[in-house]
């Protein structure tokens, strides 16, 4: 269980909330690059951390992210004309550049310097790989650009999708940390999904259905090791990193691409799951990308607004027959919707005073505690971790180690991302 | 054509509606109707310190208010435990009518006692957790002695992890 006040503190990320202040120390994914595909393309509404923003790409390819509403009379700039180096409000023609600076106020005399004093609040937004990251915090505290390995590999080695999840971000994050659900909820997918099947690791998974867990504190967050019996005197380890505040990665299987997620708050009742697959040393194959686009692996089949086709309005296409046959443990198709259907069913913000946690939830308990401490530390002026390259250059790992080794020491450098270094997977 | 003639394989799916549909049930408004009643506490969580440093940590946790948790120290061979109030309790009794044992260790002493707890827990289906409170150390004897006997381990654990774990599990 968790006290109501702490639950709300961790869940609420709007401006001037304690958790919102923490989130505003990190670059966060706010759009897929495909949403602003070319210069002067249509602007896109962005809601993140409970702020209504408009994103656009100007005639020179510069990205802008700013207050959605025109400074004049509050019209949404979604209706704006994206032309000649700026976004123009269609009501009275006020025009803004990518920094939010008004560059034309045609309703005023041409000699007036009125527009110099009109500026919409704006935030820096950069493209890394196929994702646009933005920083909504104090410019003086802006961390270095994101260095996640998935977004530093060459083009063609990463694929990112996003999907709407209609619940608070913390419920979604906790699913990424909760390693003990995998055997149950996703048990049916290991051998059927093209993005998981056929690895040696899967054999260990199936051979030992009751993993042991070790939760290791790290500077940037946690490493959650799930340990299963392998050959005599050896353990098969799957190591999931969580990096503050909202990044988790799934341990790899064989030579399949590696996947992970950012759980980005939209407002306190909704979040985006940004889900990526990348391979550190090779191009993704056409077949892999096709499977990802089709919603396999950690991805989902979505409508054009990135809401999953299976959603709460159609009961996630619940299939009781497949539940009975054991193909899908919950009767819902696909990892992503298996998770989000259950997390949404808890309600937008689950009442954590009613939880009956058990010892194997220690990873979740510890993550909440680390988030809480980071919030408190920031209030005392201590900068958080997780926004520095050394925290972000982390890999998930699957490995077989001798039984008498700490998994962190056994893994050693395998957990550290380096260009063109093969990943450690079983 | 009557309703019964629909070809269910290819025909349009009916759209779920009403109180039993996910769309309706997963709203904040509906969440408020989740019924409210006292939840059962964890059943008699036992917290066991394996060395002096661990004992210091569990003693300070024991000062807080708990539902049914009890706090002990153990030394090899582990047949009898000392409860924080000073009384001696046989291991068999400590491991009766409980569903979780949390072991706290810093040094790796008393490995025989750990195994005694672990064996009994396995036999009786009791959940085991371990906190390795050796500061900064990823590898330690404490880790290796606890590892075979704790379903989940925190490495390294901070002092307040014990309190958080007990609180979160309603001990
Ligand atoms: S079994 Fe875990 S939420 Fe129900
Ligand atoms: Fe999951």
Task: Give your account of this protein's structure.
Chain A: InterPro entries: ARHD_Rieske_2Fe_2S (IPR015881), Cholesterol_7-desaturase (IPR050584), LigXa_C (IPR045623), Rieske_2Fe-2S (IPR017941), Rieske_2Fe-2S_sf (IPR036922). Chain A: Keywords: 2Fe-2S, Dioxygenase, Iron, Iron-sulfur, Metal-binding, Oxidoreductase. Chain A: GO terms for molecular function: 2 iron, 2 sulfur cluster binding; dioxygenase activity; iron ion binding; monooxygenase activity; oxidoreductase activity, acting on paired donors, with incorporation or reduction of molecular oxygen. The complex is a heterodimer of chains A (about 425) and B (about 170). Chain A is α+β, with helices and mostly antiparallel strands. Chain A has two domains: about 30-140, Rieske [2Fe-2S] iron-sulphur domain (Rieske Iron-sulfur Protein); about 150-410, Naphthalene 1,2-dioxygenase Alpha Subunit, Chain A, domain 1, CATH 3.90.380. Chain A is about 20% helix and about 25% strand. Chain A has helices at about 5-10, 20-25, 170-175, 180-185, 200-205, 285-295, 320-325, 335-345, 360-380, 390, 405-410; strands spanning about 25-30, 45-50, 50-55, 65, 80-85, 85-90, 95, 100-105, 120-125, 125-130, 130-135, 160-165, 210-220, 220-230, 235-245, 245-250, 260-265, 270-280, 395-400. The longest helix of chain A is centred in the C-terminal third of the chain and has 18 residues, at about 360-380. The two termini of chain A are about 35 Å apart. With about 170 residues, chain B is an alpha/beta fold. Chain B has one domain (about 45-170): Rossmann fold, CATH 3.40.50.1440. In chain B, about 30% of the residues lie in helices and about 20% in strands. Chain B contains seven helices and seven strands. Chain B has helices at about 20-25, 30, 50-60, 90-95, 110-125, 140-145, 160-170; strands at about 45-50, 70-75, 80-85, 90, 100-105, 125-130, 150-155. Chain B has a seven-stranded mixed β-sheet, sandwiched between helices. The longest helix of chain B has 14 residues, at about 110-125. In chain B, about 40% of the residues are buried. Mean pLDDT of chain B is about 90; it is low at about 1-10. The interface of A and B includes residues 269, 341, 349, 357 and 405 of A. Strand 13 of chain A pairs parallel with strand 7 of chain B. Fe (ii) ion binds near residues 181, 185, 186 and 339 of chain A.
């Amino acid at each position: 269980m968790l006290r109501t006040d702490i639950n709300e503190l961790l869940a609420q990320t709007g401006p001037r909330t304690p958790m919102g202040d923490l989130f505003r120390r990190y670059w966060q994914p706010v759009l897929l690059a495909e949403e602003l595909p070319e210069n002067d393309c249509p602007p896109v509404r962005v809601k993140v951390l409970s702020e209504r923003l408009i994103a656009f790409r100007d005639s020179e390819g510069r990205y802008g992210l700013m207050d959605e509403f025109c400074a004049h009379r509050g019209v949404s700039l979604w209706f704006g004309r994206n032309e000649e180096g700026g976004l123009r409000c269609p009501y009275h023609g006020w025009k803004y550049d990518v920094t939010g600076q008004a560059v034309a106020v045609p309703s005023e005399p041409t000699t007036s310097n009125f527009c110099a004093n009109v500026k919409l609040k704006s935030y820096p937004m950069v493209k890394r790989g196929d994702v646009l990251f933005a920083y909504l915090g104090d410019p003086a505290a802006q961390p270095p650009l994101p260095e996640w390995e998935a977004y530093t590999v060459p083009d063609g080695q990463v694929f990112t999708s996003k999907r709407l999840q209609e619940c608070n971000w913390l419920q979604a994050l906790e699913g990424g940390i909760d390693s003990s659900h995998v055997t149950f909820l996703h048990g049916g997918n290991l051998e059927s999904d093209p993005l998981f099947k056929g690895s040696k690791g899967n054999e260990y998974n199936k051979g030992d259905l009751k993993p042991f867990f070790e939760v290791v504190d790290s500077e940037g967050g946690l490493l959650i090791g799930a340990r299963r019996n392998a050959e005599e005197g050896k353990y098969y380890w799957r190591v999931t990193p969580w990096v503050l505040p909202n990044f988790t990665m799934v341990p790899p299987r064989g030579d399949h691409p590696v996947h992970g997620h950012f759980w980005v708050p939209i407002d306190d009742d909704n979040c985006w799951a940004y889900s990526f697959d990348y391979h550190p040393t090779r191009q993704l194959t056409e077949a892999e990308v096709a499977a990802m686009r089709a919603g396999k692996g950690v991805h989902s089949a979505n409508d054009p607004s990135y809401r999953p086709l299976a959603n709460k309005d159609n009961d996630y296409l619940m299939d009781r027959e497949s539940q009975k046959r054991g193909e899908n443990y919950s009767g819902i198709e696909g990892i992503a919707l298996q998770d989000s259907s259950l997390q949404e069913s808890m309600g937008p913000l689950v009442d954590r005073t009613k939880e009956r946690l058990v010892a194997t939830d220690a990873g979740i308990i510890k993550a909440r505690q680390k988030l809480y401490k980071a919030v408190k530390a920031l209030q005392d002026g201590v900068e958080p971790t997780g926004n520095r390259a050394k925290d972000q250059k982390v890999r998930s790992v699957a490995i077989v180690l001798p039984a008498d080794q700490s998994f962190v020491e056994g893994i050693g450098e395998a957990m550290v991302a380096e260009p063109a270094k093969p990943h450690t997977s079983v | 054509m009557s309703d019964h003639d629909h070809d269910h394989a290819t025909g349009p799916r009916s759209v779920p509606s009403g109180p039993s549909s996910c769309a309706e049930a997963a709203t904040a408004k509906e969440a408020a109707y989740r019924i409210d009643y006292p939840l059962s506490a964890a059943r008699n969580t036992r917290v066991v310190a394996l060395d002096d440093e661990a004992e210091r940590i569990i003693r300070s946790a024991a000062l807080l208010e708990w539902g049914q948790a009890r706090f002990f120290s153990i030394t090899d061979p582990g047949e009898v435990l000392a409860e924080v109030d000073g009384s001696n309790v046989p291991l068999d009794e400590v491991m009766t009518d409980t569903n979780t044992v949390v072991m706290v260790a810093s040094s790796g002493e008393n490995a025989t006692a750990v195994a005694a707890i672990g064996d009994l827990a396995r036999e009786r289906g009791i959940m085991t957790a371990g906190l390795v409170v050796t500061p900064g150390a990823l590898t330690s004897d404490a880790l290796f002695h606890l590892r075979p006997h704790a379903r989940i381990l925190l490495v390294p654990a901070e002092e307040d992890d014990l309190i958080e774990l007990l609180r979160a599990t309603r001990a």
